[in-house]
Specification:
By secondary structure, the chain is mainly beta. The protein is built from two helices and 14 strands, in the order E-H-E-E-E-H-E-E-E-E-E-E-E-E-E-E.
Length: 199
């Protein structure tokens, strides 16, 4: 596990969620903590795991007071080398209910509804609200993308309806590309090359 040496003149930004960090550790990847400049700025953070590509863009400003729950400390706190206030950064994470059968497939030639929920790391202060979510699908391995209709269903939760082609018209299954934005202008773009197969 890699951590940066923290300076009292700089603040720490932990870019990956603790849950994501756990996955990285279990898979043998390193987890990084970063010093970010104290000036307000926008940042981009990219990750790819098992072919799923995620790009976050978010705004970050100076931390004047530590803002982390005791059960989710900053990475530097775990190694007793944290000399500055720190907090998780406001990355939007996505949770999916793909509404699939027991064999993880959906019916070809039918309209299929999935649910996507945005969430954040647990923090002590107020969280932003996911305000918009756009979904696109591809049935040819990501060569072409089509927008789908989305509808807000509750706090940070959206449904989208996907019109499936015949099974032989989507031999690689259904790819999903989700773009979400929150009330503070933070964004996430996640691409799943094969979200599920058709039967």
């Amino acid at each position: 596990m890699n951590t940066s040496v923290l300076s009292p003149r700089r603040r720490t930004g932990t870019l990956a969620a603790f849950a994501t960090a756990t996955v990285f550790v279990l898979s043998g990847c390193g987890v990084n903590a970063y010093d970010l400049p104290s000036e307000s700025a926008r940042y981009t953070f990219e990750a790819e795991t098992n072919g799923v590509r995620t790009v976050w863009e978010y705004a970050s400003a100076e931390v004047t007071k530590a803002d982390t729950p005791a059960h989710q400390p900053c990475i530097g706190d775990l190694f007793d080398n944290n000399q500055a206030a720190c907090r998780p950064e406001p990355l939007i994470f996505l949770k999916y209910d793909l509404n699939l059968a027991l064999d993880n497939t959906a019916e070809a030639g039918d309209t299929h509804e999935i649910t996507v929920t945005g969430y954040y790391q647990e923090r002590l202060s107020a969280l932003p609200r996911v305000t918009t979510l756009k979904a696109e699908t591809s049935f040819d391995g990501g060569k072409t993308w089509r927008p789908t209709t989305t509808k807000a269903e509750g706090k940070n939760t959206f449904t989208t309806k996907i019109k499936h082609p015949k099974r032989d018209q989507a031999p690689k299954g259904v790819a999903l590309r989700i773009n979400a934005t929150d009330s503070e202008g933070n964004t996430v773009k996640q691409t799943m090359p094969t979200a599920y197969k058709l039967r």
